[in-house]
Design goal:
This protein is 0% helix and 57% strand. It contains no helices and eleven strands. The strands form two sheets. Strands 2, 4, 5, 6, 9, 10 and 11 form a seven-stranded mixed sheet that branches. Strands 1-3-8-7 form a four-stranded antiparallel sheet, with no helix packed on it. The protein is elongated and about 45 Å long. It has strands at residues 2-6, 9-11, 17-24, 29-38, 45-50, 56-58, 66-71, 76-81, 90-99, 104-108, 112-116.
Length: 118
């Protein structure tokens, strides 16, 4: 099982970016999916999660600006980021709790850099 993230880049303050993360491999089911981020010199922090049923949870710092969604048919989770701020600059990691035929465990994507700067 692999998670492949894409969509990061450089954007000006106030701009938007959309991240995607696709899961592939011998997947039986995907439970919670989410996004975390890690800024230089800081610990990795939760940004947002979404359950298989569509319930969402957001960090206070991104509420009203970021939106998580998922396409279960494509095993893909998205993060729409609007009104970006310099403090959103970080490496963004996707995460998924995935069940295979043998076990259930957390998987992480490789990280994608988001830089918000003028």
């Amino acid at each position: 099982v692999q998670l492949q993230a894409s969509g990061g880049g450089l954007v000006q303050p106030g701009g938007s970016l959309r991240l995607s993360c696709a899961a592939s491999g011998s997947i039986f089911s995907i439970r919670t999916m989410g996004w975390y981020r890690q800024a230089p010199g800081k610990q990795r922090e939760l940004v947002t999660t979404i359950t298989s049923g569509g319930s969402t949870n957001y960090a206070d710092s991104v509420k009203g600006r970021f939106t998580i969604s998922r396409d279960n048919a494509k095993n893909t989770v998205y993060l729409q980021m609007n009104s970006l701020k310099p403090e959103d600059t970080a490496v963004y990691y996707c995460n998924a709790l995935i069940a295979t035929i043998s076990f259930t465990r957390d998987y992480w994507g490789q990280g994608t850099q988001v830089t918000v700067s003028s």
